[in-house]
Amino acid sequence: MKLSLFVHMERTLPDEPQEKLYQEMIELCEIADRGGMHAIWTGEHHGMNFTIAPNPFINLADIARRTSRVRLGTGTIIAPFNHPIRLAGEAAMTDIITGGRLELGIARGAYSYEYERLMPGLTAWDAGQRMRELIPAVKKLWQGDYAHQGEYWSFPATTSSPLPKQQPHPPIWVAARDPNSHEFAVQNGCNVQVTPLHQGEEEIVRLVTCFNEARARFAAEQPLKIMLLQHGYVAEDEADARLAAEELNRFYHYFGAWFKNQRPVRQGLIQPLSDEEIAANTYYSAEMMRTNLAIGTANEVITRLKKYEALGYDEFALWIDSGMSFARKKASLERFIRCVMPEFH
């Protein structure tokens, strides 16, 4: 199982300089590359300091110049916000700039906060249908001289300019949760990204089972892959692990508040949650984070990841966005590289 890093700029306080946050993100990426991690993934989000990532291609082009071998992935492009011609060209240009290291992850998007700002009235269903129209169109544009008449986009014969360095095209990944999404991905020759978020082993098993059933039904002969994206923290000791669980519990409370899209937002920052509000919300808890996420000493994390490998996951992406200080993120990542990764080489 390959081990990768999933990272964004994240801002929780208005006095945190965004330039400093970017340089800290870059330092984590450089550590990942030097340490031999397989890939770095970063996504697309808009108007949210919780996840600052307006165009992952810009970040990946910069990261490519600061790294030597790590694969560079979009985790993920939001399908309804991208025209097929534009996406095909931008992805191909990024593939050229990165020397053929691009992995193209695409999703329907998740936050109604973004939907109502970029495409008012967009529903999750429509976003998913747009993704299903977008991906085949992008692949045809890379083949060239492709005319499209669809439900959401129409254009005369067009060839992506430029064409990607990787042939026939960079690997495409689809963010999938329900069986239909897994089937769409497999039928279109795409790898699959999954995240159980804060949920436990039952969801992790369900997701890989959906993928395996889709492959068996539609494309057993294709060498398609599945990646598990999950929060983790490699701790010095149990006290450090408990602190990480508390920090990730707070992170998920903010994640949930952004997802519900009911809380006031000012200058890209959500209205702070009080300790009382966090304590009163039993949907998340520090105990749940400690049990369900890849949190623990190096040996504990190794044992957990070995289970994922045995289930059939081809890649594990360490989701490092957490609301933690840069120093704690860096220390955990260095322990991950030094103590956990050798068990998977």
Automatic annotation (TrEMBL):
Question: What terms describe the molecular function in GO for this protein?
Answer: monooxygenase activity; oxidoreductase activity, acting on paired donors, with incorporation or reduction of molecular oxygen
State its Enzyme Commission number(s): 1.-.-.-
- In which domain of life is the source organism classified? Bacteria
Asked if Oxidoreductase is a keyword of the record, the answer is yes
Q: Name one GO cellular component term.
A: cytosol
Q: Which top EC class is given?
A: oxidoreductase
The residue ranges of the Luciferase-like domain are 1-314
Q: Name the Pfam families for this protein.
A: Bac_luciferase
Q: Any idea which UniProt keywords this protein has? A: Monooxygenase, Oxidoreductase
PANTHER family according to UniProt = BLR5498 PROTEIN (PTHR30137:SF8), LUCIFERASE-LIKE MONOOXYGENASE (PTHR30137)
Q: What name does UniProt use for this protein?
A: LLM class flavin-dependent oxidoreductase
